[in-house]
Design goal:
heterodimer; A: 315 residues; mainly alpha; 14 helices; B: alpha/beta; D-Maltodextrin-Binding Protein, domain 2; 2 domains; 6-stranded mixed β-sheet; 20 helices
């Protein structure tokens, strides 16, 4: 009908189209106005520092060139030097070891806790709430507690192990590379388990009890119900928890900063703490930025996965 | 289900944000004590990290505020780590106090970063300058000899001996040489009660380097040749003490305060101790000192003795609108009388010769006398703009030897200091 009108009265058709396009343009402008605050926020709060950091990482700003303004662009030199540096490679490895082991333990235990506390028994709610205390505590407090608990001569953990006769001599927790890493992982899991539990619990409560009931009627065992009902329905929640957990753990800073200062001998140094050391302790601003960029890139890739996952879910 | 998750997530995220914001607020608090009524002068800020000395500082500030009306000085306590971070950030943002305190080995880096204002024109004709000791004075100058501040106090390291433990082990006199020290350590170490011979700090920060320098120089080496034969000997000696169970391996995680606490708790017979610790022994820890103790200078090796200079400087920060007035305050603060008064109250060593002569405090009290005399063979760290990097190389080598990761010689060979010094040598003093 409209097409016919347009073909019969071409000038009118033009007008309609023009009117339409002005309306569309107006609406588009309105749309842009709506996203402007958010966009401006992103640009100023996130974009500016990020771009500044990227630029910094390609220059040679350090204690010598900073005030004199003699810094120049050096291309990928900072990155090349970092990857040639033994300490940086160790730090990169530490970051992945820390993240993977933390995820493994906190997810598994968190899932078990979530399943356990979803059972209806007396005090399930209050106890679940108490488990959350670890998550509520500021990381600085947790890290200090960890530092004291894992102390070789006066720490409660060695004391306990000795009294239980599990060890004969105190374990040199924060004095050995491997044991120090184990200690920071343990402390981080204490915080991570409630976090995982919380997110997985809300995933679990979303699954209708009727499904389990009908499966039971059909004779499904506990394992089968878990394998064929819980897991598939929990998949989106699980993926989100793992992604968020990865991001949170990968950019760890305060725990190591307070508990071990990255030591002994960089054994618990991660990208976050190493970047801080370079920038704020040695005034190697550009190399610190390059380290932060490596951290950013790793998280960016994970972030992309996460976004894809979310958009898939929403479809 | 998704809704649930999102809502929970939002709650967690906002909670996390609130937490991290709260942590940010814990930075600084103004000292409440009396600094005099506003005198009509422009308000200038002074940042410091004095703790038990803060009252004495405020007293001095009050006196100055009442003596003139050009500027009104308001001191603010900022913890040392936070202060260092603020200087670095301030170098970029320009948010700096008018007057800032700084640990002497860090000053060269901050001068290079442009944190401090060149005050040469205000102080170069000051006749008192000749009275300042060269070591502390060198730390406020850049390579061209321009002056960026004034030193405020000095300290150094000596051995603090728990005479009860020594006597119980049959040792009458504190050790004076490396060999004697080792012997005393062997006699006093008591694994059953967790008592070690020596306690020190070998932590992975400037404190670790600070405590290592006396051994390095005592062996006859210096920062330009840490991996020389003498340098290796120094590290072999210290790591040997740990290896043989005479010193706790935990020293790698101990700051100087932690080592001091271990000593105070009777867990070590001897402590490598700083001047400032006399004030805490007399003050806040007076009731914990249930034993006899004695200070002796750092032990000698082959007749050679060394210790290290520590101390704080004050500078006028870049961007201050009252540079001249602030420089005047620094001069007044560091006048012979004020410096002597201040160092007596704060338990520190003056930075100028004529101040020491004003009182018998540093000669009458035999503990302070040990430190005052030790200044004769005390060495400064740097000054060097890349001192933090040099320092890191030193404490990393020390830690890897103590932890048994590397042999002392290998650990020191891995300390890359030469290229830094080849580029910019340490200014001669």
């Amino acid at each position: 009908m409209l097409c016919a009108a347009v073909s019969v009265l071409p000038w009118k058709g033009c007008e309609i189209v023009r009117a339409r396009s002005t309306i569309a343009a107006k609406r588009r402008r309105e749309g842009y106005t709506f996203i402007l605050p958010g966009f401006a926020y992103m640009l100023i709060i996130l974009g500016y520092p990020l771009i500044y950091n990227i630029i910094l990482s390609f220059k040679n700003v350090n204690v010598k060139t900073f005030a004199s303004g003699t810094s120049v662009f050096v291309g990928f030199q900072n990155y090349i030097e970092l990857f040639q540096n033994e300490t940086f490679r160790l730090v990169l490895k530490n970051t992945f070891v820390f993240t993977i082991f933390c995820l493994l333990f906190q997810f598994t235990i968190g899932f078990i806790f979530a399943l356990f506390f979803s059972q209806k028994f007396t005090l399930a709610g209050p106890i679940r709430g108490m488990v959350l205390v670890g998550y509520m505590m500021p990381m600085s407090v947790t890290a200090l507690l960890g530092k004291n608990m894992f102390d070789v001569s006066s720490g409660v953990i060695n004391d306990l192990l000795m009294k239980l006769h599990l060890i004969n001599a105190p374990v040199e927790w924060l004095l050995g590379g491997g044991t120090a890493m184990a200690a920071v992982i343990a402390v981080n899991c204490w915080v991570g388990i409630p976090f995982n539990m919380l997110l997985l619990t809300s995933g679990l409560t979303g699954i209708s009890q009727e499904l389990y009931e009908s499966a039971s009627v059909d004779g499904a065992t506990w394992g089968q119900r878990f394998r064929y009902i819980t897991l598939p329905l929990m998949k989106p929640a699980i993926m989100s928890v793992l992604m968020l957990g990865f991001i949170y753990t990968f950019k760890a800073f305060d725990l190591m900063f307070i508990m071990t200062s990255g030591g002994p001998l960089n054994a618990t140094d991660v990208l976050g703490t190493y970047s801080y050391t370079l920038s704020f302790k040695q005034y190697e601003f550009s190399r610190g930025s390059a380290t932060a960029m490596v951290l950013f890139c790793c998280l960016f890739v994970i972030g992309l996965f996460y976004l894809r996952l979310i958009s898939k879910e929403e479809e | 289900m998704q809704k649930h998750m999102r809502r929970n997530l939002a709650m967690i995220l906002s909670g996390a944000m609130a937490m991290s914001m709260m942590a940010g607020f814990a930075a600084s608090a103004e000292d409440g004590s009396d600094i005099g009524e506003p005198n009509g002068g422009a308000e200038v800020t002074l940042w410091h990290y004095f703790e038990h000395e803060a009252t004495a500082l405020n007293q001095m500030v009050k006196q100055y505020n009442e003596s003139q009306s050009d500027i009104y000085i308001v001191p603010t306590f900022v913890s040392r780590d936070e202060l260092m971070k603020q200087y670095t950030i301030g170098a970029v943002s320009g948010e700096l106090p008018d007057i800032g305190m700084v640990d002497s080995p860090d000053m060269a880096s901050y001068i290079s970063l442009g944190v401090f204002e060149d005050i040469t024109e205000y102080v170069q004709d000051w006749e008192d300058l000749a009275q300042f000791y060269p070591g502390p004075m060198a730390s406020v100058k850049d390579a061209d000899g321009k002056i960026y501040g004034l030193p405020n106090n000095s300290n150094c390291l000596a051995l603090l001996c728990n005479m009860d433990i020594l006597n119980a082990a049959g040792v009458e006199n504190p050790p004076t040489t490396w060999e004697e020290l080792r012997e005393v350590c062997e006699k006093t170490t008591d694994p059953d009660n967790g008592v070690y011979g020596l306690a020190m700090s070998a932590i992975s920060n400037e404190e670790g380097t600070f405590q290592y320098i006396p051994w390095l120089y005592g062996a006859g080496a210096d920062v330009t040749d840490v991996d020389s034969e003498a340098g290796v000997e120094a590290l072999t000696y210290l790591s040997g003490l740990v290896k043989d169970g005479l010193m706790s391996k935990e020293v790698v995680n101990w700051g100087q305060g932690d080592a001091y606490n271990a000593f105070l708790a009777g867990k070590a017979a001897i402590l490598e101790s700083g001047t400032w610790q006399i004030a805490t022994l007399d003050g806040q820890d007076a009731d914990k000192v249930t034993f006899n103790y004695k200070y002796v200078p750092m032990p000698a090796k082959d007749g050679k003795q060394a210790t290290v200079i520590g101390g704080e400087n004050f500078g006028v920060c870049a961007g201050s609108e009252h540079v001249a007035e602030c420089a005047e305050f620094l001069k007044s603060m560091m006048s012979a009388q004020n410096n002597a008064d201040w160092c007596e109250i704060a338990g520190k060593l003056p930075i100028r010769g004529d101040a020491v002569n004003l009182k018998d405090f540093w000669t009458a009290d035999e503990r302070y006398k040990v430190f005052n005399d030790s200044m004769d063979f005390a060495v400064a760290r740097g000054p060097h703009e890349s001192w933090p990097t040099i320092s890191e190389a030193i404490y990393t080598a020390e830690q890897s030897a103590i932890l048994g990761e590397k042999e002392p010689a290998d650990a020191l060979a891995a300390a890359v200091i030469d290229p830094i010094l080849a580029e910019t040598p340490i200014a001669a003093q």
